[in-house]
Amino acid sequence: MTDLTSGSGVPSTRETWTRYGQIQLDRGYMPPVPERLDWGFWAGVGPGTEVLGPVRGKRVLDIGSGPGHHAVHLARDHGARVDAVELSPTQHRRAITHFGAEPGVRFINADVVEHLRAADPYDAAYGLRTFGCIDPRHLLPSLRDGLRPGAPLVFSALHTDAEGQGPSSVVVPRQGTIRIKGQEPIPSQGWALASQLWEELLVGHGFRVEESQVLHAPEPDNPVAVHLIRARRAPGTVGR
After folding, report:
1. Domain limits at 47?
2. At what angle do helices 136-146 and 195-204 cross, to 10 degrees?
3. For position 213, which CATH number holds?
4. What are the angstrom distances between the C-alpha of 35 and each of 1, 64, 74, 75?
5. Does the keyword Transferase feature in the UniProt annotation (predicted)?
6. Digit-coded pLDDT (tens) for 54-85
7. Does residue 239 form part of some domain?
8. Within a domain: 7
9. I want to staple 46 with a disulfide (CB 3.0 to 4.6 A). Which of 67, 82, 95, 215 is the partner?
10. Among candidate residues 153, 110, 158, 155, the one with its CA nearest the CA of residue 132
């Protein structure tokens, strides 16, 4: 992910996820390596890893890789060569502690925008629920330049939160909290945008949107929904 401060007293992205990672380190919690990528918060809801397309032997960027279990899935089960880029030093520590010697995965503790400035262009990129933590106007230009022409970009982001607050029609962050059972809520900020706005931003930054869908919680009384978008860097756009 990339580090941005709100100027309103809300912790920066780095501070939020460093605190989150430290709590999980203290708890000794590590999620298992999944059998597929779940783009929402619920196992088996919506499409899985297949929306990335074939990735065997390809260089793939994991944006905001957290404890690294998704990157390990892609390397082990699909033969991808994954650069797992994570801003939070504590989240990165979780990843290298458990998967530091994992073949096919390189764990990188860095701001993803800064990383992309120096990295060779990738064959694909994805982010599971991490795009809502990053100002898309800051991230998308670097992603366009950091992907090969025609390369897929697949990501998910919060659409409707636990209070039922739906997406915004303007690109502004909103304040929220991250909740861990038995812990004080962690203040955060994020971008939950309407489908049309996501499409306008992507097209305006050199991407072609191929599919957009909203994944809903399986429980009828749970208002949480996640937006899943599959796009592709448009050929002929400015970049490397």
Report:
1. 13-233
2. 50
3. 3.40.50.150
4. 24, 19, 9, 12
5. yes
6. 999 999 999 999 999 999 999 999 999 999 99
7. no
8. no
9. 215
10. 158
